[in-house]
Amino acid sequence: MNLKLALLPGDGIGPEVLAQAVKCLQAVEEAFGHNFVYREAVVGAIAIDKTGDPLPQSTLDLCQEADAVLFGAIGDPKFDNDPNAKVRPEHGLLKLRKELGLYANIRPVQVFPTLIDNSPLKKEIITGVDFVIYRELTGGIYFGEKKINEAGTVASDLCEYSELEIERIAHLAFKAAKNRKKRLTLVDKANVLESSRLWRKVVTKIGQSYPEVTLDFLFVDNAAMQIILNPALFDVILTENMFGDILSDEGSVIGGSIGLLASASIGENNALFEPIHGSFPQAKGKDIANPIASILSAAMLLEHFGLFEEAMLVRHSVDKSLEKGVVTPDLNNLSEYTTSQVGDFIAHTIEESD
Amino acid sequence: MNLKLALLPGDGIGPEVLAQAVKCLQAVEEAFGHNFVYREAVVGAIAIDKTGDPLPQSTLDLCQEADAVLFGAIGDPKFDNDPNAKVRPEHGLLKLRKELGLYANIRPVQVFPTLIDNSPLKKEIITGVDFVIYRELTGGIYFGEKKINEAGTVASDLCEYSELEIERIAHLAFKAAKNRKKRLTLVDKANVLESSRLWRKVVTKIGQSYPEVTLDFLFVDNAAMQIILNPALFDVILTENMFGDILSDEGSVIGGSIGLLASASIGENNALFEPIHGSFPQAKGKDIANPIASILSAAMLLEHFGLFEEAMLVRHSVDKSLEKGVVTPDLNNLSEYTTSQVGDFIAHTIEESD
Ligand SMILES: [Mg+2]
Ligand SMILES: [Mg+2]
DSSP string of A63-129? Predict the structure, then answer.
């Protein structure tokens, strides 16, 4: 397969971890005979420093021309500490998501067997957990009309959804369920909310085109309980923007390895893959940052293009680095492996698999 | 203190557990020289059977004349299985909350040391957890304007709050924090929602009248994480209706003893106290239901009227029943204590405390 990939290393540890993800993609090219072309651009604080804009037009153009974007991390404390800063690094990512029309956020919740003791949940509850949350990302109450009266005494936010907004992410979620454990749970509050009843109606209708997938429903308050009590029951969770924000953050901590998790944001013509961790400025340039989340975001990229065998190999190679203890000091403070050594180990494991 | 209490036993195990709560209140009267008057009325399925209405006018009148309502449980499977049922037992409670103007729902999250192994969380995380959620109950998106267009393709719900709605529950929450660990956390999404920004503004202003209470803020997605990672950090959580629905249900499961939890709903002139568990119809009449949640709802009633010493004694007596293993079979399947024996033990412990 030929793919044009935009690389946006961003700030802090972004460049260091993204470099390891690229190593692994290059190993996949080698092992499977693919041809990926990489072009790099600035975003975030470094882009502000160079151009005054956290998302320069040239970066946006590059992303729009690419098949997908591999994103590092964003943010620099010099902006956090300046309340007068008019542009902020984070605006670069928000604007990029908007310009690329990335309407679906995909957050896998998984457990790494060697790290299971880090989980806040008991071992028997967290063992075998492997689900993925499909969160609608561009609609709902976060983007609905906001009002405040002149006296400043009454404020409101509107949660609105259209059939079309629900349909497009529902198709993505059903397709994912088809390739997984064939179970989709729609999380809503249909006993109370009109918008939730529309979600239920539209998703039920679309489910008829995916007869191999079992569809069930859960109210959001119950879902917040089940993620703690019975997380192994879930396969694919589909939900609207705000419920997805709450549940994907709740889900991210149950495995105990939040620093290793990746996410994808998908649009009609583009897609962006990134670790869920931040730019960790204190570790910048020290070659100690953990590259696994970035490498797993590359695995999600491969899956997005249907390269399931390739993605599986990347995941297995990550597992091997964890099993063999080839990890950065955050996972084992006795370990002396650097960011690039971990990346090398995983890339070599991919190459040697044949 | 003289109190007029309305007793609404309701359905299923409601009458059995409520009877134990009344035993304990009578023991408190005895031990402290109070004078409580009890009057009973029907609500729920039993009220439908007798009058056709899940909340007959005579029941509502009784509740409005009372200082507080002690509620059992509601619900009967014969209505759940009848999709054509026009009246449902649950409507009795919803209507009662509305008619009494109960705008604040209070849900303590606590851990019982003898039952800590039931928690889905690891012992070191759940030990010492003791917080309470103040959830606004009559405003926000659950009660805002609902719309659907004629084609049925666009639906919306409005989340609206006024200063007044925020102020009255904020005062309750600050007063509670003053009597506890003096920390109040407002949970909102003020980085995105206009209504959350109004909450933040109003709660900050009211906080100036409670200088002994430390006020901090947490976004709802972060709160969903912290309830799992660091639940012992919380004291009083204050939040709007839907966030409170999600977080109080999430909070209810972390202790592992959801069947033992109570709640209060507070209005301008009235208050209602109940276990959070349901009517458990399978156990009805068998004298096996666990009365502890109902007894703890009576402790919340005492606290509501400022009878802190009395409430503490009820709680200690409940702890003693757990420590001594005087519990119903749901907590220990080798136990042969009945509902009424557990109630007797706790009531006697209260009486003997002098
Ligand atoms: Mg979030
Ligand atoms: Mg609920």
Answer: HHHSSEEEEEE---HHHHT-TT-SS-HHHHHHHHHHHTTEEEEEEEEE--GGGGGG-SB-HHHHTT-
pLDDT(A45) > 70: yes
In a domain, A264, yes or no: no
Say what the pLDDT of residue A83 is. Answer: 67
CA-based R_g, chain B, Å: 20
Whether the predicted pLDDT of B165 surpasses 80:
yes
Q: Tell me how many degrees the CA angle A141-A147-A151 measures, rounded to the nearest 5.
A: 145
The answer to whether residue B65 sits within a structural domain is: yes
Distance of alpha carbon B21 from alpha carbon B114, whole angstroms: 21
Catalytic residue among A142, A181, A320, A344: A142
Out of B218, B237, B257, a domain closes at: B257
DSSP B292: H
pLDDT, tens digit, 9 for 90 and up, residues B109-153: 999 999 999 999 999 999 999 999 999 999 999 999 999 999 999
Strand order across the beta sheet in which A154-162 lies: A146-148, A154-162, B154-162, B146-148
Is B228's CB within 8 Å of A228's CB? yes
Cβ–Cβ under 8 Å, residues A182 and A235:
yes
Which of chain A's residues have a Cβ under 8 Å away from the Cβ of B245?
220-221
Residue numbers of the domain that contains A112: 106-258
B254 and A141 within 8 Å at the Cβ level: the answer is: no
Same domain, A150 and A35: no
Residues A292 and A165 in one domain: no
Both tokens assigned to B239: 């939040």
**Measured between alpha carbons, how far is B31 from B123 in angstroms, rounded to an integer?**
36
CATH number at residue B211: 3.40.718.10
Whether residues A146 and A221 share a domain: the answer is yes
Catalytic residue among B157, B175, B221, B286: B221
Average pLDDT in the A140-167 region? Answer: 97
Domains: count for chain B: 2
Residues B243 and B283 in one domain: no
Are A200 and A332 part of one and the same domain?
no
Average pLDDT over residues B84-107: 90
- Who wins on pLDDT, A37 or A332? A37
CA of B222 to the centre of ligand 1 (A): 7
* Structure tokens that stand for B4 in this block: 């007029």
CA B59, B61, B65 angle in degrees (round to 5)?
120
User: Are residues A140 and A94 part of one domain?
Assistant: no
Residue A110 and residue A242 in one domain: yes
Torsion on CA atoms A114, A115, A119, A124, rounded to nearest 10: 0
Q: Among the residues of chain B, which ranges form H helices?
A: 14-32, 45-51, 57-65, 77-80, 89-99, 123-126, 163-178, 194-207, 220-229, 241-254, 292-304, 308-323, 339-351
Based on the domain organization, do A225 and A116 belong to the same domain? yes
* A109-130 pLDDT per residue, tens: 999 999 999 999 999 999 999 9
